[in-house]
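We modelled the chain as a single entity of 45 amino acids. Its sequence is:
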Amino acid sequence: MRLQAASEANALRTQNRQLRERIDHLLVDNDQYRRALANRATPRS
């Protein structure tokens, strides 16, 4: 049973790391999108 718990904990740590990486990518994507919108909303001179 202890081995199964350790295995599950490792799987959760891996999933946690992957989710953090995905969040980082989404934050970058969101920032780029907001900048693009801001540039479009800015009147050109």
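As a brief sanity check on the tokenised model: Residues 2-41 form the longest helix (40 residues). The chain has one domain: 1-45.
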